[in-house]
Amino acid sequence: MAKNKPNIIAIIGPTATGKTRIGAGIAKRLQSEVISVDSQVVYQELAIGVAIPTADEMMGIPHHMIGVVPPTENFSAGNYAAMAMPILNRLLEENKTPILVGGTGFYLRALLQPEHLPHVPVDPAFRDHVKKQLQAKGPEGLHQLLQEKDPARAGDIHPNDTVRVIRALEIIEQTGEKVPKTRFEPEFPTMAIGLTYANRDKHVEKIANRLHQMLDEGFLEEVATLYEKYGNCFALQNAHGYPELIEVIQGKRTLESAITQIEINIRQYSKRQMTWFRRFPGIEWYFVDEMSVDEVITDVVERFVCAS
Questions:
Q1: In the chain, what are the domains?
Q2: Which of 8, 29, 110, 290 has its CA at a distance of 20 to 30 angstroms from the CA of residue 139?
Q3: d(Cα 93, Cα 84) in Å, to the nearest integer?
C-alpha cells in the first residue's frame, strides 16, 4: 500500500476473477468512473472472445479505454498511456477516484509509472527488418532470438506477444544493453486490490467454463467474421483464442484441439499475470472463491474511506 493517502484504486489480477463487476461496483459506491487496463478490449469489434463488459456488468458506470482502436492497429503500452492519462488526470481534477480495472500489467505500469518506459525512439527500418524475420521464423523463432539476447526479458513475455518482443529487441539494438529492470513504484498513491483464487482448481474450472460459454455465445463465428473482413490482422494474432480459432477456420486443426490449446494458453497466461502482479508494492489480495462480489466491494470501499 502506498504510504500516502491513495488517489486511485487498481483492481487487478489474473484473468477470469471477476474484476469487471467488482470494479464497477466500487466505482458506483464511490460515484466515480472506470478506466480499463486491458490490452485486448482496447480493440473495436472484438467482443465475445475478449469478454467485453456487458451493460449489466458496467452498472451504468462510465468505462474508458474499451473499443478505442481498430483491430488492424499495433497498439503499445505507450499508446495506451497517452490515451488514458488525460482521463486519469480529469478524474483526479474532479476529485473522483479513478478505478483502474484489468489484468494487463505493462499497461498499468505505463500509466502509473510512465518514467519507467525506456526513452528509445521507434526505428521503422529496424522494425521492418524484424517483421520480415517474424514472417520467416514465426513468433516462436522471434521469441528465441530475444531469449538469446536477453533471457530475463524473454521470460517475462509470451512468444505470441510479438509487440513486446519486437520492442524489447528494438531497445537492445539501440542501447546495446539488455532491457533494464526497474522497481515498480507508482507515481500516484494507489490502493492495489488483487483478485485471485485460493483454490487453483476452481480457477482452472472457471477458465474452462468461461471459454465454453464464449463458444456457445458465438466466439467462433465472431472470429470468422473478423477474419473475413480484416484477414489475420494484428488483434487477431494477439488476443487469446483468436489465433487458434483462425486455424480451425483455415482447416489446420479441429475445434476440439483448439479448445484444449486455448485453455492451456490461458492457464499459462494467468500464472504469468500472478507473477507480474506480485511485484506490485503493497497489494491486498482477495480470494474470490471465498468471498462474494458484494463482500469484496464493501471491504474495499471501507478500506479506501478509512485510508482517505
A1: 8-116+182-307 (3.40.50.300), 124-175 (1.10.20.140)
A2: 110
A3: 14
